[in-house]
């Protein structure tokens, strides 16, 4: 099985998992999330993460999405993945957003890993756009 594993500071990862449940067909056993909550120690996060991935086997694959490359959640998650001997079948991305997580969840079983990696980066980049509000400033001024 391929798993999408979300890690973040705070409740971003669990919140994103909740949104994925809305958009990708309910609760999914292939989506796992762990957040490093305010005041939580790195050891507690590592234990929570270790427990969350305990069902992942050596024949499974992991798509690890983290909020910040080099942040504590991602580095601790990678340490636990390594301790479990799963680093060979893990791809890792930082800067996760909803478009990236949704793409990973919906496409992971239908395309090869290289195409999936390209798609994740493309979707994440394309999701970032400025939305310009039209406030009517270009319209003719109202007469008094």
From TrEMBL:
GO molecular function, one term: transferase activity
PTS EIIA type-4 domain: residues covered: 1-128
Alphabetical list of InterPro entries matching this protein: Bacterial_PTS_sugar_comp (IPR051471), PTS_EIIA_man-typ (IPR004701), PTS_EIIA_man-typ_sf (IPR036662)
Assigned GO CC terms: membrane
Pfam assignment, any one: EIIA-man
Record's keyword terms, sorted: Transferase
GO biological process: phosphoenolpyruvate-dependent sugar phosphotransferase system
Name of this protein: PTS fructose transporter subunit IIA
């Amino acid at each position: 099985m391929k798993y999408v594993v979300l890690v973040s500071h705070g409740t971003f990862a669990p919140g994103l998992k909740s949104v994925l449940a809305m958009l990708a067909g309910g609760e999914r056993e292939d989506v796992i999330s762990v957040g490093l909550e305010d005041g939580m120690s790195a050891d507690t996060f590592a234990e929570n993460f270790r427990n969350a991935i305990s069902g992942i086997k050596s024949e499974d694959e992991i798509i690890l999405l983290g909020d910040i490359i080099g942040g504590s959640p991602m580095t601790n998650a990678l340490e636990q993945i390594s301790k479990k001997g799963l680093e060979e079948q893990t791809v890792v991305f930082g800067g996760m957003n909803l478009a990236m997580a949704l793409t990973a969840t919906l496409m992971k079983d239908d395309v090869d890993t290289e195409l999936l990696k390209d798609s994740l980066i493309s979707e994440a980049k394309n999701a970032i756009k400025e939305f310009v509000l039209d406030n009517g400033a270009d319209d003719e001024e109202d007469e008094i």
